[in-house]
Amino acid sequence: MTPRHIIISRTDSIGDVILTFPLLGLLKKQFPDVKITFLGQNYTRPVILACSHVDFFLDWSEMQGHSMETRITLLRSMEADVILHVFPRKEIARLAHKAGIPVRMGTTGRIYHWLHCNHLIKLSRKNSPLHEAFLNILLAEKLIGRPEISDGDIPGLYGFDRIAKLPEEFAALIDPVRFNLILHPKSKGSAREWGTDNFATLSALLPRNMYKIFVTGTKAEGDLLIQEGFFDKAGDFTDLTGKMSLEKMISFILAADGLIAASTGPLHIAAALGKTTLGIYPPIRPMHPGRWAPIGKRASFLVSEKECSDCAEGGPCRCMLDISPKQVQQKLFSMVNSDLI
């Protein structure tokens, strides 16, 4: 089939959304005239609208405030012929069915997809060895087949290039000579963390004649960093916690040179923007880098090379905490130096 208008339903987090963009890139490559609507959460709107593969944005947060009849009317008005449930939600699957979207695609792993989808894909994310970006692509197999692509092809498929201009107050902070490095220590609970002390030690280790350090996060995360002693141990840095909207954060990452974080949204933003990106990961599935590593022209990761499940029930990850700041510093140096060659 040749679709005219596809709705991509992905109502979860920033990193998940970013790793769906390569699928959109392949859809646009296969069907150059297709329109793509992205159904997502309001807080991911700036990320979604920065992708040039997206023609329209539907705010699920707003739609939830309306009656079922209003939602059906809105979805019908899109005149979409395909909806792809990348992130499964029962209420959206039911809504798409009621709205009469002709092709409704979802995985066999959700019972409600058997009721509300008419094209089922046998795919288990939990047991797959594949990266999230490739799992997303497999969901559209009935539309685009199984394209032969590798990690090296993914950066060219993001379409993450519709970036707002950075306001002068933040642009003026960028050093024209030194390497502008963003440290993003916290994750809002979305990922295992490397630890405040490790980030502070890393910051103190980096020579300031070579690096200008920025620290980002929400205001609440900034307050927590103060409580945990980061500001006392990290040396000279520019504190940007709580000072930027997500849209400005995207623009600032584009203006900077690199970013270090755990498996968070900003890490995947940096990778998609082609920045020097270093992720710090636990070895435990399904949080391991095999599934969630940043993929980009200058992206890499560190992970303890051992089988471990000690933190399976939550709490600090010893395997991550055991990755030393010196190891991260050396990995960063090698990445930066390879960029200069």
List keywords for this structure.
Rossmann fold; 2 domains
Q: What report would you give on this structure?
A:
With 341 residues, the chain is α/β, with parallel strands linked by helices. It has two domains: 153 residues, Glycogen Phosphorylase B (Rossmann fold), CATH 3.40.50.2000; 173 residues, Rossmann fold (3-Layer(aba) Sandwich), CATH 3.40.50.2000. The protein is 38% helix and 16% strand. It is built from 18 helices and twelve strands. The strands form two sheets. It has a six-stranded parallel β-sheet. It has a six-stranded parallel β-sheet with strand order 9-8-7-10-11-12, with helices on both faces. α2 runs parallel beside α8. The longest helix is centred in the C-terminal third of the chain and has 16 residues. The radius of gyration is 21 Å and the shape is globular. The chain starts with a strand and ends with a helix. 41% of the residues are buried.
Query: What is the total domain count?
Result: 2
Strand percentage lies at 15-25%
**How many distinct beta strands?**
12
**Helical fraction:** 25-40%
Category from helices, strands and their pairing: alpha/beta
Largest sheet: number of strands, sense, barrel closure: 6 strands, parallel
What's the Cα radius of gyration? 21 Å
Poorly predicted ranges (pLDDT <50, ≥5 residues)?
none
Helix and strand element order: EHHEHEHHEHEHEHHHEHEHHEHEHEHEHH
Which geometry do the CA atoms define? globular
The CATH topology of the largest domain corresponds to Rossmann fold
What's the CATH class of the largest domain, please? Alpha Beta
Q: End-to-end distance, in Å?
A: 47 Å
The CATH homologous superfamily of the largest domain = Glycogen Phosphorylase B
CATH architectural name of the largest domain: 3-Layer(aba) Sandwich
- Mean pLDDT over all positions: 93
